[in-house]
Amino acid sequence: MDLTKIVSISGKPGLFKVTGQGKQSVVVESLIDGKRFPAFAQDRMSSLEEISIFTENGDKPLKEVFFRIHEVMGDELGFDVKKLSNDALKAEFAKIVPDFDVEGVYPSDMKKVFGWYKLLIERNLLDFTEAEAPAEEPAETTKDA
């Protein structure tokens, strides 16, 4: 799953696919309505590949969070993110990332993650048939005595 060409643009709803590059801009296409437009440096774009979620043990890349959502919930979330209370939203997010930083991850961030997942699934841009998400392997400690 390659998320480098999928970007979020500050102040604009939804996600965008990078389709080309101009002299001083990047051409993006909205995943919501398919409209194309140039995005400039001042638009503050973030590739989904670079975004991570704060946890108690460091950061968890968004790609791993998407793999986990798919493991737990499949292609359908089973709830409407917009209708959930903040407490219910936190409970749903805790099923995915149990060790998320409760002070660093806001309900608005959780809504974005679930909304982005839903949008990417609808557009068939998430491929879970690749090798599974990189699992954290425990360090081997063997002593020769």
Helix/strand order, N-terminal first = EEEEEEEHHH
From the coordinates shown, what is the CATH architecture of the largest domain? Orthogonal Bundle
By CATH, the topology of the largest domain is Arc Repressor Mutant, subunit A
Choose one word for the global shape: globular
Main beta sheet strand tally, sense and closure: 5 strands, antiparallel
Structural class: alpha+beta
Gyration radius, in Å: 17 Å
Count of runs of 4 or more consecutive helical residues: 3
- State the separation between the terminal residues, measured CA to CA: 44 Å
Give the beta-strand count. Answer: 7
Residue share in helix: 25-40%
Write down the CATH class of the largest domain.
Mainly Alpha
Query: What share of the residues does DSSP label as strand, in percent?
Result: 15-25%
- Major β-sheet strand ordering: 4-3-2-1-5
What ranges have pLDDT less than 50 throughout 5 or more consecutive residues? 137-143
How many discrete domains?
Answer: 2
Mean pLDDT: 87
